Amino acid sequence: MTISESLSLAIQKLNQYRITSASLDAEILLSFALKKPKEFLYSHPDRQLTSGQLQKFNHLVIRRAACEPIAYLTGHKEFYGLDFFVDKNVLIPRPETELMVEEVLNHFRVTPRSLPVTLIDIGTGSGCVPIALAKNLYDASGIKYYGLDISKPAITIAKRNAKSHGISQKIKFLQSDLLKNIPNSLLIIHNSRIVVTANLPYLTPTQYRANPDLKYEPQKALVAGPDGLKYYRTLLPQIKDLSRRVASITIFLEIDPSQTIAIKKVIHRYLPKAIISVEKDLSGHNRLVIIKLNYKQPKP
Ligand SMILES: C[S@@+](CC[C@H](N)C(=O)[O-])C[C@H]1O[C@@H](n2cnc3c(N)ncnc32)[C@H](O)[C@@H]1O
User: Cβ of 193: how many Cβ atoms within 10 Å?
Assistant: First the structure.
């Protein structure tokens, strides 16, 4: 069978299974199966596929027809212009999370670099957030980066991604239940600033069940108790503890837009002096909460 014949059949099958991006997906999967760029498909429409290539492609199409995400089929996802390895052990990085990276970069643009900085990404998954930050923050001042996740396989994948981006020395990836397993002494440099990024699970079980497309991703990376705020409710008191001994903490939390009022209440409860702002994603939905805690005179 030729490239163009196998593409047509695949598109037909994916359409039958109501895959809305059928043409694009078929192209991605065929170029992946052939290990060739997409342009090759159009410059060689009459090229015959070997039986091995055809078998591989058909298998991928069957999996896609069952709604398995393209990123898990190819093992790749682009995030903030960088390529990340992903598999079923980690959440596929979402475009809306690029807002977090953008806002942290803005934060560094406007904040003086006089104090040492520790950046801690909590619930790091593929490591996409700290890796994108470390690749884009070319600093001589030496920010200390940490990526934490409760999942051991996620930590292995984050380390693999840092290595493939040539920055494995820059970021320490550690397995931890939020901040529980990390001694404060490791994170705190006296009179320093801390930046926390956290895209922790924030869906409710109802939201998760309502979106069958999520069934291939780890449920533990998505669902967070009846109101989706279970992890943020535990994390904020841990951060309060940390904040007593540093000059300032800035926290970036990704949320579901429906949680805007509820998360503000949680923040006020644990961090009454916090300054809170909310940023919208490209679709105009509240997506990122920025919390500033400033302690002008840190205790010795
Ligand atoms: C929504 S995913 C986000 C992954 C990544 N930050 C991203 O934006 O693609 C949430 C991550 O939090 C991790 N996680 C869940 N509970 C955790 C906990 N108690 N402590 C640390 N990480 C946790 C999950 O394993 C998962 O990797």
Answer: 21
> How many whole angstroms separate alpha carbon 278 and alpha carbon 220?
25
Summarize pLDDT for 81-117 with one digit per residue, the tens. Answer: 999 999 999 999 999 999 999 999 999 988 877 788 9
C-beta separation of 276 from 264 below 8 A:
yes
Q: What is the pLDDT of residues 211-222, one digit of tens each?
A: 888 999 999 999
The dihedral sign for the CA sequence 298, 188, 176, 73: positive
**pTM beyond 0.85, yes or no:** yes
Q: How many CB atoms lie within 10 A of CB 205?
A: 14
151 contact partners, CB below 8 Å, separation of at least 6: 89, 90, 175, 218, 220, 221
Residue with CA at minimum distance from ligand 1 atom 2: 221
Fold of 78-83+89-294: Rossmann fold (3.40.50)
Is 80 exceeded by the pLDDT of residue 285?
yes
Architecture of the domain whose range is 3-66: Orthogonal Bundle (1.10)
Closest C-alpha to 251, from 166, 193, 182: 193
Q: What is the average pLDDT across 142-147? A: 92
Q: How far is the CA of 90 from the centre of ligand 1 (A)?
A: 8
CATH 1.10.8 placement within the chain: 3-66
Residues of the chain with CATH 3.40.50.150: 78-83+89-294
pLDDT at 300 over 70: no
| Closest-lying ligand 1 atom to the alpha carbon of residue 201 | 1
